[in-house]
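tokens incoming
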């Protein structure tokens, strides 16, 4: 039995039929591990000591509205834990970055999954640019001249915030879109960050493939079909999940990333592939484990803990 702390958003509010963190926690409980749960805001770094106020998980089960039984509030020294599961949802902001710095002081004596140093240095929309042979034409900038030049060359584009998540604020801009300039004004008034702009991939109408990688190996995949009239295929904004068997190009992409993910101790990763192109590498809190496990009649949560247990 290992002592495992889980840094996540409120466990009482999760959708137990879709949430990846729930599936991972349920599997850890079935294996007899001692589980402690806390919210990111309750992490403290005091004179070099990392603590968290949270609750032990006394029971967890796949029953809606009765899925978790928790202890009274307690404070735990996280250096006494064997594993910390970092499942804090984005946004990838300064709070998130600060938490990775704090957790990095514990790793690897307390094994943090995913490695907080590598999470901090691999934002999904930046890390992907390391694999330029597999990505669509991509621009990251605040320079309006460069943005308009890119738009003129590729005509149809996707515009999104560099550190956004969950399909939020993603815009499909068509060739003569009259709202393009206003959209840029809105983004730049709202944030000082660069935008990421990519050539629009019409293949998205056939689906956005999410591949779950466990310790550098393919664990499974699901195809996400966007709703009619939308460019976003994220499941929580209305995308439809379909069973997916990876083709040769998709397997080639996975193979190209495998060694790098394993070397960085990015044990649970979600790759997004549209057509022949890798569009994102999700390392913060990737989802899709439950959907893939149901389609494939597999147990990706078990694969995950097999991998983690091999490190401790």
């Amino acid at each position: 039995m290992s002592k495992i702390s889980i840094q996540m958003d409120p466990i009482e509010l999760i959708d137990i039929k879709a949430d990846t963190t729930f599936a991972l926690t349920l599997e850890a409980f079935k294996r007899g591990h001692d589980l402690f749960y806390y919210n990111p805001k309750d992490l403290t770094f005091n004179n070099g000591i990392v603590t968290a106020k949270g609750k032990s998980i006394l029971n967890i089960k796949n029953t809606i509205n009765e899925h978790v039984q928790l202890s009274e509030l307690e404070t735990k020294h996280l250096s006494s834990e064997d594993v910390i599961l970092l499942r804090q949802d984005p946004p990838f902001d300064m709070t998130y970055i600060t938490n990775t710095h704090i957790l990095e002081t514990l790793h690897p004596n307390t094994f943090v999954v995913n490695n907080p140093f590598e999470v901090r240095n691999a934002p999904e929309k930046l890390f992907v640019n390391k694999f330029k042979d597999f990505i669509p034409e991509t621009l990251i900038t605040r320079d309006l001249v460069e943005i308009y030049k890119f738009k003129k060359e590729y005509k149809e584009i996707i515009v999104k915030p560099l550190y956004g998540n969950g399909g939020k604020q993603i815009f499909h801009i068509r060739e003569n879109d009259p709202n393009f300039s206003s959209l840029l004004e809105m983004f730049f008034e709202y944030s000082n960050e660069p935008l990421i702009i990519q050539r629009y991939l019409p293949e998205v109408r056939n689906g956005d493939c999410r591949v779950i990688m466990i310790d550098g190996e393919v664990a499974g995949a699901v195809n996400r079909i966007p709703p009619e009239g939308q460019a976003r295929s994220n499941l929580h904004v209305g995308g439809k999940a379909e069973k997916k068997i990876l083709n040769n190009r998709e397997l080639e992409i996975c193979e190209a990333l495998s060694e790098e993910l394993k070397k960085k101790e990015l044990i649970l990763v979600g790759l997004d592939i549209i057509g022949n192109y890798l569009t994102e590498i999700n390392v913060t809190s990737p989802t899709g484990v439950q959907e893939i496990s149901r389609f494939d009649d597999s147990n990706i949560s078990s694969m995950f803990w097999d991998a983690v247990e091999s490190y401790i």
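note: DSSP finds nine helices and 16 strands in the chain.
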